[in-house]
Amino acid sequence: MTVFLPRDLDEALELRDRHPGATAVAxxxxxxxxxxxxxxxxxxxxxxxxxxxxxxxxxWTDGALILGAGTTYWDVIRDRRAGxxxxxxxxxxxxxxxxxxxxxxxxGGNIVNASPAADGVPVLMAYxxxxxxxxxxxxxxxxxxxxxxxxxxxxxxxxxxxxxxHVPRRTYDLQWFEKVGSRSAQAITxxxxxxxxRDGEWRVVANSVAPTVRRCRSLExxxxxxxxxxxxxxxxxxxxxxxxxxxDIRSTAEYRLExxxxxxxxxxxDVCPSIT
Length: 276
Ligand SMILES: Cc1cc2nc3c(=O)[nH]c(=O)nc-3n(C[C@H](O)[C@H](O)[C@H](O)COP(=O)(O)OP(=O)(O)OC[C@H]3O[C@@H](n4cnc5c(N)ncnc54)[C@H](O)[C@@H]3O)c2cc1C
What we know:
A hairpin with a 6-residue loop joins β13 and β14 (about 215). This protein has a five-stranded antiparallel beta sheet with strand order 4-5-10-6-7, covered by helices on one side. The protein has a four-stranded antiparallel beta sheet with strand order 11-12-13-14, with helices on both faces. The protein is an alpha+beta fold. The protein is built from eleven helices and 14 strands. α9 runs antiparallel to α10 (about 235-240). Bound molecules: flavin-adenine dinucleotide. The site of flavin-adenine dinucleotide has 28 residues, from β2, α7 and β10.
């Protein structure tokens, strides 16, 4: 096996360009789960990003919180300002695995791993996060909501790395994240949802109910238009056009849909006059 150890971003991008088949490694927490299988498959080129300082840490600008792709959950949990301004980031981070994973796993790894159950992705999407994707020749920006094409498929070229995540700094009148799992730690999400509202504009993003983390655009319209809702069943039509849950070892499609509708109904009833 060959492990490339770039010392800075330019070197990482050059290696990415010359070795597009090499697997990028950030915290390694997703990759290590499949380690024996990958070693057996002799997939033998790895691009270790852990020494690339430009990918680590986060900064606040006037308009955004900018997360380096290699920023860990713990970095965000420890930033009091994140808890005050963008609390869903902290709430989601605290529910990823447990402390060991939170100190090692990165926001970028969560995005590119592209699990439908990823907990970092729904809150970033509810905040309209924008990804910065870089190759040697160019830097492109892409809304996270447009990044996924299907299960584990995304708009990331073999010569690109995810370098930064821009989270706009805005004032919201509603921010809410809920994760339903078997335990309060070390649990993969059965159903999850992140919701924001700002100037009457809604973002409703669900995880573990479709092949990708999914913005629920029909439901967002229903809420923005103020259509009357008098029980979870009234949300079902919109939800059924937004999500396609499946039965698997953790849950059933029926449970996932029912729980999502109930969570939304009971939480939003307090803040939406159209929901009674
Ligand atoms: C015990 C355990 C519990 C877990 N619990 C949760 C949980 O509750 N919720 C949850 O969402 N996840 C959970 N995870 C999954 C994982 O920890 C997270 O998804 C984490 O954010 C992955 O980040 P990483 O840096 O470790 O990624 P890595 O494993 O290093 O990489 C993941 C993927 O991203 C790619 N990648 C990483 N960085 C870049 C980059 N900059 N550019 C391009 N590609 C890149 C890699 O090539 C790989 O395909 C858990 C994992 C374990 C082992």
